[in-house]
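I hope you will forgive my troubling you with a question about protein structure. I set the record out below, with my sincere thanks for your time.
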Amino acid sequence: MTVLRFAATAAGIPAEKIFVENKATNTGENIALSKALLAEQGITPHSVIVVQKPFMERRSYATFMRQWPEPRPSISISSPNISFEDYPNDHITREVVTNIMVGDLQRIKVYATPEKDFQIPQEIPAEVWAAYEGLTASGFTWNVIPDEQ
């Protein structure tokens, strides 16, 4: 049982009402495969809750808005309420979290380009992009798309 399925059942959601998509290798596939999974069950949702890591909320929203065609259900994005300081643990270091966040920020910009068109555009404030550039210059690059730096 996945952690999220366990949390949902613990919150009182009947197990037969929980559908888990576990074949996707990226956010766009996850959305498309989840939509197909629901369609197989004869479900056309009016609303969807996307549960994601805290630092992937915005990219998940932008991807959902592009990858789930009309009619599109209303969407809520949720993640564990955890600060950046508290996110690293024995299994994921601060360096790993930072690298992931840097790559996700880059994807918010790159994946909204007409060439990629994986997600809707999102505004990135200049100071946030300057932080991205500073972090990549400092070596936080293992999760960035190399040809898009």
Notes: Residues 3-148 form one domain. Helices lie at 3-10, 27-40, 57-67, 94-110, 126-137. The radius of gyration is 17 Å.
